[in-house]
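Quick log. Single chain, no ligands specified.
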Amino acid sequence: MLNKLTFYFVLCLPALIKGFLRKLTNPKKIPNPKELKKILFFQMGHFGDIILSEPLLRNLKQNNPASEITVITGEWNKELISKNPDIDHIIIYNNYLLNRDNKTSIFSFIKESFLLVKEINRYSFDLGIDVRGHINSLFILYLAKVKLIIGANYCGHGLFLDKSLKLRNDLYEKERLLELLSLVNIPIKDSSLNFPLSDKARNQAEIYLAKHALLKNSSLIALFPGASFTPKRWPEKSFAELANLIIQNKLGKIVLLGGKDDKDVVDRTNTLINGDVISWIGEGKNGDIDMLAGLLSKCNALVANDTGPTHLATALNVKSTVLFGPTNAQRWADKERNIIIDVKAECSPCALVSNNCPLSKNNCIEGISVEEVYQKLKKSLE
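-> predicted structure:
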């Protein structure tokens, strides 16, 4: 509680006052897009958020190739964000309230925040874009000297932005982010979702699969049983039963995938599967994303919870069956490219803010039947 009070009184309150005075005293005209030479993009989300930001960043650069795009993000996104060819500079900022590891003290965070404001002011940015619309990240832009600030209007914070759009939960996140460009009259030239998969990544994946005696013409089905929050996870037993059906009916070979934080989930799932499977778990080091992308690109299909790798698979054009429980399928799934299984319990989508179901039931994601997932997966492979 003390940490949150310190955060709001030391950082947020002064930022809100400055933002309000700025709005009153300095009405902003929308500039010509060609005048936006230095652009600051504030993205403190995680894996999936970075993937879904790619079309917005690409359109910014396509409309003004001479512009310099700087991204502020957390250390946890450094490897992924560095792969985007449209980004010129990256500033790492480990926001205390947005870091899932939460290892930074509130006082170190306050110091780092003021240093970040000082760093931003060195660049004299023409445009600042915040996609969260939440004071947890917006206060930085309010305190800094950015000529024009746009973003999502969440919980009324749009009052302090120069231009804003309502934060919509009924629109696919990729499209919601692209809508922000309309605030500065930047046309959308290409809305496709892509990932720059390198030849090295493809080769690494081929070598890995060859070591496990899988030929290129093998039908591979990836299962990703992990997720950042426990309530988002379809039960390990259900993933294992699905794998057993796939093996029994010779639908394909199973590739179990997971990041370093998913090791226990993947291992427990593996022990419940009656048959040989390939298991790859990231080690949390540079190159993991390339390997994950390479392996996904070799798979014919993916079954996963609502988690970052599903967006990566979508960007790689891998057929994906995505399982939704507490989170919003309208916002976090591509209805044209994903097969969406959403229980639609009375309490979902919910405000999932912790690692536990708010109602201690978790009956949404657990209500998805193995047979339904199997049949939809089978149909997608026909």
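DSSP finds 13 helices and twelve strands in the chain.
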